[in-house]
Amino acid sequence: MTSKPAQMRSPSATVGAELPAPLAAQGAGWVVEARRTLHAYTTLAKPGIVWLLLVTTVPAMVLAAEGWPDTGLVLLTLVGGMLTAGGANAMNQWFDRDIDAVMARTRRRPLPQGRITPRRALLFGLALAALGGVELGLAVNALSAALALAAVAFYVLVYTVWLKRRTPQNIVIGGAAGAVPPLVGWAAVRGDIEVAPLLLFLIVFLWTPPHFWALALRYKDEYARAGIPMLPVAVGEAATKRQMLWYSVALMVASVLLVAVGAAGWLYLGVAIALGLLFIALAGRLWRGRIAPMTLFWYSIIYLPLLFIAAAVDEVVL
């Protein structure tokens, strides 16, 4: 008995032998595209900046609770803060997509590269902010939700739309939005606002200008080309560095005031003085031209979480 000719064999066997490679390629292509899209939307939310903001939320909650607060409440507050902050960042990039395309530092963001359409980016930002506000309002309390949404509105409408392209004091005034997370954390626990969270707000508010101006010094020419009147562009490098030094002194004073009102103890005080003196020393060296602006920028990123963590540890341990 002879075997069937090749053309008489089962069609299923032939199809099965031919499709795996194309199907595998299509499947791999879909996975790659999905990962790229997810990365693009994640980049819109600026998770690195969100983390730096949220690291000020938990210590404020610890101070408000006079110890470690309910873990569930901490997680719910962080989720709401993450969503609202991410939404604000996405909307910021929607408004700034024209200048982002001009600056080398930002031209690889999703909107200038066309990885996400402007309409989808705006809807994504609005959805994140709204979802975060609703989550905080339902799962935490109304005051924390109101504060978080107010920070979104201030960052997007006051800083991004109004101040950024009009005045060299843009980051000074607009920085108030980034100083709101400690207020949200305190309100989540206590349902009110007292002197201690206002001092935490002041610390972040005073920290923001020297932190951001260090970056602005590094990219001064790009901001000038984009027509953004950052302080180094408007008044020059020497005047900017001098103001950074004064802000670093004011920052240290504000950090010590937390002890004066009884919100922190001696452990925090020691850390605040050490961190503050180093901040002032670096700002002074920058003013005298002995270090690069990015040295102070990177230290400022370390400074803020260390200071707030010290406040939390002081409250929990001592």
Looking at this protein, list some descriptive labels.
318 residues, mainly alpha, 17 helices, disordered N terminus
Q: How does this model look, in words?
A:
The longest helix is centred in the N-terminal third of the chain and has 25 residues, at 20-44. This protein has helices at residues 11-18, 20-44, 47-54, 57-65, 71-95, 97-100, 110-113, 118-139, 142-163, 170-174, 181-190, 195-218, 220-226, 231-235, 237-260, 266-287, 293-317. It is mainly alpha-helical. Helix content is 78%, strand content 0%. It is globular and about 60 Å long. Helix 5 packs antiparallel against helix 8 and helix 12 (195-218) packs antiparallel against helix 17 (293-317).
Topology, element by element:
Blueprint: H1 11-18, H2 20-44, H3 47-54, H4 57-65, H5 71-95, H6 97-100, H7 110-113, H8 118-139, H9 142-163, H10 170-174, H11 181-190, H12 195-218, H13 220-226, H14 231-235, H15 237-260, H16 266-287, H17 293-317
Largest sheet: none
The percentage helix is over 70%
Which whole number gives the mean pLDDT? Answer: 91
Estimate what percentage of residues fall within beta strands. under 5%
Q: H/E order of the elements?
A: HHHHHHHHHHHHHHHHH
Distance between the termini: 92 Å
Shape: globular
Total strands: 0
Radius of gyration: 25 Å
* Number of helical stretches of at least 4 residues: 17
| Coarse structural class | mainly alpha
Which regions contain 5 or more consecutive residues with pLDDT less than 50? 1-19
